[in-house]
Write a structure and sequence with these properties.
Elements (H helix, E strand, L loop, with lengths): L1 E4 L1 H9 L5 E6 L4 H16 L5 E6 L4 H6 L7 E6 L2 E7 L4 H8 L4
Parallel strand pairs: 1-3, 2-3
Antiparallel strand pairs: 2-4, 4-5
């Protein structure tokens, strides 16, 4: 499944992960975020063991969102060995998310 991360758990769950990590930067009031959430959850199930999926509520972790230049949500950012390597901005189909993440797993 996916892991909810906040300021205090971001380093452990994302930056120190041995697996590539897909971080969903979102907020509960964001309708496009709600539209992409089912796709992100499907990816978390289908790629379990190959990809870690985390959700970060930007209202609860504004410092992390600011550190990575998140200007609009949803933003899906891929981290590998603690570094951001790619991102997808906006609500996109599952196939588009898979196309991007497959480069890193």
């Amino acid at each position: 499944m996916f892991v909810q991360v906040k300021d205090e758990s971001f380093e452990i769950e994302v930056l120190n992960s041995e697996l590539p990590v897909l971080v969903d930067f979102w907020a509960p009031w964001c309708m496009p975020c709600r539209m992409v959430a089912p796709q992100v959850e499907m990816i978390a199930r289908e790629y379990e063991g190959k990809l870690k999926v985390c959700k970060l509520n930007v209202d609860e972790a504004p410092q992390i969102a600011s550190r990575y230049g998140i200007m609009s949500i949803p933003t899906l950012m891929i981290f590998k060995t603690g570094q951001p390597v790619d991102k997808i901005i906006g609500a996109v189909p599952k196939e588009e998310i898979e196309r991007v993440i497959k480069q890193y797993i």
